[in-house]
Write a structure and sequence with these properties.
TIM Barrel, alpha/beta, 15 strands, 8-stranded mixed sheet, 7-stranded parallel sheet
């Protein structure tokens, strides 16, 4: 009898242990949220399970008992961690260095997670001469995934006369460093050149060809203006990026003409494969350009901030704020999410990012779509009213919670 009782107890204990193991199959479960994942064509309520920093499962119903931690996301949108592919993060203390090792650039972690951004791309802060310093100082020390577009200028985006130095635009050395840090260096940048000269554009494209990566052009400042039609149709390759799409600045032809019509060759360029990036910034986004362009169906391929100290407190504010502007210009939510996740991941040739496929890194943002009366500002301090606004409730980076606005993942203090 005693032996029989012992066997029963042993069987119960075995079942209990097995049940405990099953109950801890996942580290985290985000359930009942509306998942938008452009790569996998998901736009519906689903559960997302995370294990060991990876997406373990996405399914209509995953039992809560299988997870150590459960986050209820009912009424919220669950999306891949956002990618901001135009930012300035070579933060440092060098005086008069503009966006290269200076206090005008921003440390990534202070401005990424609160907007749902898990990957940020510094565009042009470092060139081949000082990229190692940028990597050691910023990339290697940040919780945010930081990638780079190398400046075609060897010493990076230090402003003024330094960025006019064609002699320092070396395609071979730029490509050499890009290949050395493949996957971290994801492109080449040309910015702030003001001469009536195609040589800088040709050199940045040559560097892109040598390293097999895209280039990003910050165009303008030429007197007389260089033709953007020539830029789109002859100088850039399919997959290359034209940033500050909705700007109207001196020395650059705007995409919307004086009569409010998007120029025909702009549509042709996008069809050809030229990437049009928002790059909002502190002086490069006007509703007078964006609103008519959106009404005519000219949408951005990627939504980005151009984040730095000169833009963050003006009209731009954050990635999530820029996304909200496009929502209120009638860009569907799933397209806004795609332009901030999977599309930029493809543009920078990092297709391991921007989606929630099983086995992918568990970078996730939980967004709240608020309804109400909101105001949005462009870079001339002109206002557009809107009735929709995105907020980031929670951000997960490699399976760890790095931002929780309202305690969604936290237990009450008195329980």
């Amino acid at each position: 009898m005693k032996k029989h009782t012992k066997n029963i107890l042993l069987a119960i204990l075995t079942m209990f242990i097995a049940g405990q193991v099953e109950a801890q199959e996942y580290d985290m479960l985000i359930n009942d949220g509306h998942v938008i994942d452009a790569k996998n064509g998901i736009d519906e309520v689903m559960d997302v399970a995370i294990l060991d920093g990876k997406i373990a499962k996405v399914n209509a119903r995953i039992p809560e008992r299988n997870a150590k931690k459960v986050i209820n996301a009912k009424g919220y949108y669950v999306v891949p961690g956002l990618l901001d592919i135009h930012s300035h993060n070579f933060h440092g203390t060098e005086p008069d260095a503009y966006l290269s090792n200076s206090d005008t650039a921003l440390p990534p972690d202070g401005f990424s997670f609160r907007s749902g951004v898990t990957t940020i791309v510094d565009v042009g802060g470092a060139g081949w001469r000082n990229f190692k310093q940028f990597k050691k100082q910023t990339i290697d020390r940040s919780k945010t995934r930081v990638l780079s577009f190398l400046n075609i200028i060897g010493s990076g985006m230090k402003g003024g006369a330094i960025e006019q130095n064609i002699a320092d635009m070396d395609p071979k050395l730029t490509a050499m460093v890009a290949k050395q840090y493949q996957g971290v260096v994801v492109g080449v940048k040309l910015a702030h050149y003001h001469g009536f000269d195609w040589v800088p554009t040709e050199r940045v494209v040559e560097a892109g060809k040598l390293a097999n990566i895209p280039v990003m052009i910050d165009f303008g400042g030429s007197d007389p203006e260089l033709s953007i039609e020539t830029l789109f149709m002859e100088k850039l390759r399919p997959g290359d990026i034209f940033t500050h799409t909705y700007a109207h600045v001196n020395g650059r032809t705007p995409i919307v003409d004086e009569s409010g019509k998007v120029r025909d060759y702009v549509f042709a360029a996008q069809k050809r494969g030229i990437i049009f990036d928002v790059g909002h910034g502190g002086g490069s986004f006007l509703f007078e350009q964006a609103v008519p362009a959106m009404k005519q169906g000219f949408k951005p391929n990627s939504i980005s901030t151009d984040l730095h100290t000169g833009s963050m407190n003006g009209g731009m504010k954050s990635q999530i704020n820029v996304m909200s502007k496009f929502l209120n210009m009638d860009m569907p939510l799933k397209e806004v999410i795609a332009a901030s996740t999977w599309q930029p991941a493809k543009i920078i040739q990092r297709e391991d990012l921007g989606h929630l496929s099983e086995g992918a890194v568990a970078d996730v943002a939980i967004l709240n779509l608020r309804k109400g009366n909101f105001g949005f500002i462009d870079t001339q301090r002109k206002k557009m009213q809107g009735d929709k606004k995105l907020e980031c409730e929670l951000t997960v980076r490699e399976g760890k919670i790095v931002w929780d606005l309202n305690g969604m993942a936290s237990a009450p203090w008195n329980e």
